[in-house]
């Protein structure tokens, strides 16, 4: 059966179809309060760590986040829709706590030359509003947008950190996406490569990712992807993939958004497909779906459904 890419499957509860405007405007506190008990199991610890990390980052010398200026127009505009892949950009913006305005795909201001989404306009550094159209940053393609936002508004302030995150962003788009979503010539998703039939070899991309996450779970990062972290001491821990431990927020980054967002689309489109054979990937997916910012971008019921699904995969 052919299907076009849509982030919310009809099998989910009706409340899971959260309007894009509601997802964009919901406050972090409100979204956390609405999370189901299953989603809160991981995110409750994460929220405390994230608040501490952001407070430290905000007071650190050399912080690049610019002071907000009074303006009649938003400084950052994202063109997208809830029924597309653009919410993965929303997720990262909510993680960064960067305010933004959301515009529909066919808005006349969409800078994408082919009218596609996601697309981004950033006017953060434009002092004169009359020069917004000429001096604002215009960007499209989800991977490019994620990398830019992490560089301009996030923690990637060195070439090493940008390279560390960038390799995962490119891998997610170039290798993971075509592995997970099997499309026809019109770009319609027909099936997922995560469906392993009897006698069939598992996809190499997922097998390699499982090994990488297993390796990274044995140091102080406890499962997040990018290695160039100030807190990555390489200390071993004895937790296995079935243990319900929280992932440290100081280690979470744009690489995890890039990879986690694609992985989490699979159980939305193909709920009968299991990741049980990849316990470290399932644990990583659960931790991503448990983050309050994920619920803000995709909807609280979608997040709760994914947390419960991933938790079932990790039970022995």
List strands and helices in order, with pairings.
Blueprint: H1 20-25, H2 28-34, H3 37-59, E1 76-79, H4 87-96, E2 101-103, E3 119-122, H5 132-135, E4 137-140, H6 142-152, H7 159-180, E5 182-183, E6 189-191, H8 204-216, H9 254-269, H10 279-289, H11 292-298, H12 300-314
Parallel strand pairs: 1-2
Antiparallel strand pairs: 1-3, 3-4, 5-6
Record keyword descriptors for this entry.
globular; 12 helices; 6 strands; alpha+beta; 316 residues
Question: What does it look like?
Answer:
Helix content is about 45%, strand content about 5%. It is of the alpha+beta class and about 325 residues long. It has a domain at about 15-55 and about 160-190 and about 200-315. A four-stranded mixed sheet has the order 2-1-3-4. It has a two-stranded antiparallel ribbon with strand order 5-6. The chain is globular, with a radius of gyration of 19 Å. The model is unreliable at about 5-70 and about 230-245 (pLDDT under 50).
The CA-CA distance between the termini, in Å, is 33 Å
Across the major sheet, the strand order is 2-1-3-4
Strand content: 5-15%
Question: In one word, what is the shape?
Answer: globular
Report the biggest beta sheet as strand number plus sense, adding barrel if it closes. Answer: 4 strands, mixed
User: Strand tally, please?
Assistant: 6
Quaternary state of the chains: single chain
- Residue share in helices? 40-55%
* Poorly predicted runs: 6-71, 228-245
Which structural class fits the helix and strand makeup?
Answer: alpha+beta
Mean pLDDT: 75
SS field, number of helical segments:
12
Calculate Rg over CA atoms: 19 Å
Order of helices and strands: HHHEHEEHEHHEEHHHHH
């Amino acid at each position: 059966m052919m299907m076009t890419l849509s982030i919310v499957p009809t099998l989910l509860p009706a409340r899971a179809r959260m309007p894009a405007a509601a997802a964009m405007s919901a406050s972090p506190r409100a979204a956390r309060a609405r999370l189901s008990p299953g989603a809160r199991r991981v995110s409750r610890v994460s929220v405390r760590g994230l608040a501490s990390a952001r407070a430290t980052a905000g007071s650190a010398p050399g912080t690049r986040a610019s002071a907000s200026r009074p303006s009649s127009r938003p400084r950052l505009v994202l063109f997208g829709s809830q029924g597309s892949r653009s919410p993965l950009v929303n997720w990262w913006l909510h993680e960064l706590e960067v305010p933004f305005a959301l515009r529909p795909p066919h808005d006349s201001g969409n800078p994408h030359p082919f009218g596609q989404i996601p697309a981004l306009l950033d006017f953060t550094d434009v002092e004169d509003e009359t020069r917004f159209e000429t001096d604002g940053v215009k960007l499209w393609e989800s991977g490019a947008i994620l990398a830019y936002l992490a560089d301009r508004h996030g923690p990637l302030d060195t070439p090493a950190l940008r390279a560390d995150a960038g390799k995962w962003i490119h891998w997610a788009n170039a290798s993971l996406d075509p592995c997970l979503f099997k499309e026809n010539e019109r770009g319609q998703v027909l099936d997922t490569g995560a469906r392993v039939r009897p006698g069939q070899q598992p996809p190499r991309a997922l097998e390699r990712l499982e090994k990488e996450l297993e390796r990274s779970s044995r140091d102080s990062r406890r499962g997040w992807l990018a290695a160039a972290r100030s807190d990555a001491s390489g200390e071993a821990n004895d937790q296995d993939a079935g243990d319900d431990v929280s992932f440290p927020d100081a280690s979470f980054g744009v690489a995890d958004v890039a990879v986690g967002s694609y992985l989490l689309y699979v159980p939305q489109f193909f709920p009968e497909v299991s990741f049980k054979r990849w316990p470290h990937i399932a644990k990583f997916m659960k931790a991503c779906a448990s983050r309050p910012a994920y619920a803000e971008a995709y909807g609280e019921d979608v997040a709760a459904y994914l947390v419960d699904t991933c938790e079932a995969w990790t039970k022995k």
